[in-house]
Design a protein that fits this description.
This protein has 87 residues and is mainly alpha-helical. It contains three helices and three strands, in the order E-E-E-H-H-H. The protein has a three-stranded antiparallel β-sheet with strand order 1-2-3. The N and C termini lie far apart (64 Å).
C-alpha cells in the first residue's frame, strides 16, 4: 500500500522506497487495459478507505437523459424559433 506525501508529490511504498508520480505514470501507461481497470478499482478503494462513505456498495444512482425531458425540449424549440425570427 502507498501513502502520498503531499508536499513532495511522491509515494512511500511499504518497503520504504519513494516513487514520484512522474516515475509511475510511464509504467501505468504501459499496463494492459485489464490491469488499468484493476488499478482504477484499487485507487477507488484507497480513496474510499481514506475518505469513507463516498462509495456505497450496491447503490444505484440515477442517470439523467434528455430522452424524456419534454419541458427542456419545448424551451429549446421556443428559443430556436425566437432566434430564427431575428433579423
Amino acid at each position: 500500500m502507498t501513502q502520498p506525501n503531499r508536499r513532495t508529490k511522491s509515494f512511500r511504498c511499504v518497503e520504504g522506497l519513494a516513487v514520484s508520480l512522474a516515475e509511475v505514470l510511464p509504467e501505468v501507461q504501459s499496463l494492459s487495459r485489464l490491469d488499468k481497470i484493476r488499478l482504477i478499482q484499487f485507487l477507488a478503494q484507497e480513496l474510499e478507505r481514506d475518505d469513507g462513505g463516498l462509495i456505497e456498495v450496491a447503490r444505484s444512482c440515477p442517470v439523467r437523459s434528455p430522452e424524456q425531458a419534454f419541458t427542456a425540449t419545448a424551451a429549446l424549440m421556443q428559443a430556436l424559433e425566437v432566434d430564427k425570427n431575428k433579423p
